Amino acid sequence: MRFDELPTPCYVVDEALLEKNLKILSGVMERTGAKIILAQKAFSMTAMYPLIGEYLAGTTASGLYEARLGHEEMGKENHVFAPAYREDEIDEIISICDHIIFNSFSQLERFKDKALQAGKKVGLRINPECSTQDGHEIYDPCSPGSRFGVTSADFHSDLLEGISGLHFHTLCQQNSDDLETTLHAVEEKFGEWLPQMEWINFGGGHHITREDYDIPRLEACIKRMQETYGLEVYIEPGEAVALNAGYMITSVLDLHKNGIDIAILDTSATCHMPDVLEMPYRPPLLGSGEAGEKNYTYRLGGQTCLTGDVIGDYSFDEPLKSGDRLVFGDMAIYSMVKTNTFNGMPLPAIAIQHKDGDCKVVREFGYEEFKVRLA
């Protein structure tokens, strides 16, 4: 099957582009000795796990189901962090994870001994209270009142026995200068305890595979923590693994006019690309321009009854017509994992584009996926 023969709507992951990202990440590992693991919350397409496993050290999870996925489908190092763990899930989590990272000292006191008795590495998430983001408080773990991590004011050094590592996650789609700033804050507030640790986890949000990313600065940050404190360094990007490696193919169903030209698509912002509404985020659309840049501007919207189910305003060289296929870029990360069936919208098919250009649909969805979600 060729690209233009795929059904719509359809997510397509480009194997060659994914491997290009993985080689960049693998290069960082080879030059520094750091370990990079996949944050499954951003990308968890298991059909690509064999390829990812060739390059990365493992996976990280945000709870039991992701932990099971990493354990069963990747089978390498398996880390987990959650703001709190459930009593009825913690035994299984401990049995399948190598690193168990706790969010508070109360959670540590409750479950640490179980993890240590099972021979697992125990970590604590810290909050360096160092916000480096601009305008995206919803994605800022260091924002005031954040529920993530222990601050220096609430740090109990007398409860550190058995803890072998510290974890922080403060970034979102950021460069290594922000990591450098964050590391200074980590050292300032938690530096006295770093020498007694074995490892440190820099969390995610590192856009390592973006063209303008400063990889030498990242590697300098890694080496400084290795050489100064003797720490093993982990990094757990999600977006960087599949950044710009996926597409969403959609079709124009109808054209409408209400002061502006409107195109109704067979995809949906709220169901298939929710970051468009949450972030907000304007996904790239191949062959299009900004509103007014090209001759014909359309507002692209979905099929649902939600008034705000709008992807954005795009312009084109030629008028759109029913049946036209549009291809959005950068649709592998935080889109596939967030899909939902609101309003009875079908989930998009999922396909792989292999290196030779051939495409294969690996998953299709129908009415049953909508029906079984609710009793």
UniProtKB/TrEMBL annotation:
Its cofactor is pyridoxal 5'-phosphate. GO terms for molecular function: lyase activity. Its EC number is 4.1.1.96. Pfam families: Orn_DAP_Arg_deC (PF00278). It is an enzyme of class 4 (lyase). Residues 10-331 form the Orn/DAP/Arg decarboxylase 2 C-terminal domain. Keywords: Decarboxylase, Lyase, Pyridoxal phosphate, Spermidine biosynthesis. PANTHER family: CARBOXYNORSPERMIDINE_CARBOXYSPERMIDINE DECARBOXYLASE, DIAMINOPIMELATE DECARBOXYLASE. This is Carboxynorspermidine decarboxylase. It comes from Aquibacillus rhizosphaerae. The gene is nspC.
